[in-house]
Design brief:
The chain is an alpha/beta fold. Helix content is 36%, strand content 17%. The strands form five sheets. It has a four-stranded parallel beta sheet with strand order 3-4-5-10, with helices on both faces. A three-stranded mixed beta sheet has the order 11-8-13.
């Protein structure tokens, strides 16, 4: 893991505990408060990258993992003699119901989450702020926009589209890609660029106690994303709207203003959207 070279001993959590890629994994479920205490006590971290979360899940699960799980992490810090640094990876979903005049979205844009995922992340941010203000940790909050790239889990538009495109390419079933709304515009940033931003922010002392957007700073419609995937895969297919995939709540456009992050750490996305989509297809 070149990005983590020179970071000392690195621990991670998972539901299983083998060591991979130089990271020692400690089995733990973030919803189990006692297990998180055990992890913190064993690792005794001076820096925590809190990326655990679920999206597109049932409301109860979102709250249990994203909110209560975050509360478990910060409560567990009481076993440490010295307050650690914590990079809390939230989500641009906290912005929620963005008005047309509010895009590109900066960090001072009002938070109006729509749906359980955004609400759980917004409430978890408050837990993180409280921990920072009360001295339990030095906390920085990151709000990534739409992540894309290899290994993206199903349930998100790019990965679901890629799976459908690859299915058509294999000749499995009909030559139809069924979709929801194609007009929304989103800001897609490669996960590898996002992780690079997380690590740069983690090492910058002026980042703590603040919120930072992580995105490409460019908007791409969902329909254009699908057309790019079809073209990159060399696939011809008809596109049909599936009413079951249409979301009841949507935001026409959400694009990040990443000027603050760029000024802080001189970060800019390096991986093009087409390269992200090629890598997503190859990992499917």
């Amino acid at each position: 893991m070149p990005l983590l070279e020179g970071w000392g001993e690195i621990f991670g959590t998972d539901l299983e505990g083998p060591e991979i890629g130089g990271v020692r994994l400690l089995p733990a479920d973030i919803t189990n408060a006692g297990a998180i205490v055990d992890v913190i006590r064993e690792a005794r971290p001076d820096l925590i990258l809190h990326l655990a979360g679920v999206s597109g899940a049932k409301p109860d699960l979102c709250m249990a993992v994203n909110l209560e799980g975050t509360r478990n992490v910060f409560r567990a810090l009481g076993v440490l003699a010295t307050a650690p640094r914590v990079v809390f990876v939230s989500s641009a979903a906290v912005y929620g119901r963005i008005r047309p005049e509010e895009t590109p979205v900066n960090e001072s844009t009002p938070v109006r989450p729509a749906g359980a995922y955004g609400e759980s992340k917004a409430k978890a941010e408050q837990v993180a702020r409280d921990a920072h203000n009360q001295g339990f940790a030095r906390v920085v909050i990151l709000r990534p926009f739409n992540l894309v790239g290899p290994g993206l889990p199903r349930g998100l538009a790019p990965s679901d589209f890629a799976a459908e495109v690859l299915r058509v390419k294999r000749g499995d079933g009909d030559d139809v890609v069924r979709v929801g709304a194609l007009t929304p515009i989103r800001d897609f940033v490669d996960v590898r660029d996002a992780v690079r931003a997380y690590l740069l922010v983690a090492e910058h002392p002026d980042a703590y106690g603040k919120v930072w957007n992580v995105g490409r700073g460019e908007g791409t419609s969902i329909g254009d994303l699908l057309e790019r995937l079809l073209g990159l895969a060399g696939v011809t297919a008809s596109v049909q709207t599936d009413t079951a995939r249409l979301r009841a709540v949507d935001v026409p456009e959400m694009v990040a203003d990443v000027g603050a992050l760029t000024r802080l750490v001189s970060w800019r996305p390096e991986i093009t959207l087409d390269q992200s989509l090629v890598d997503l297809l190859q990992s499917g």
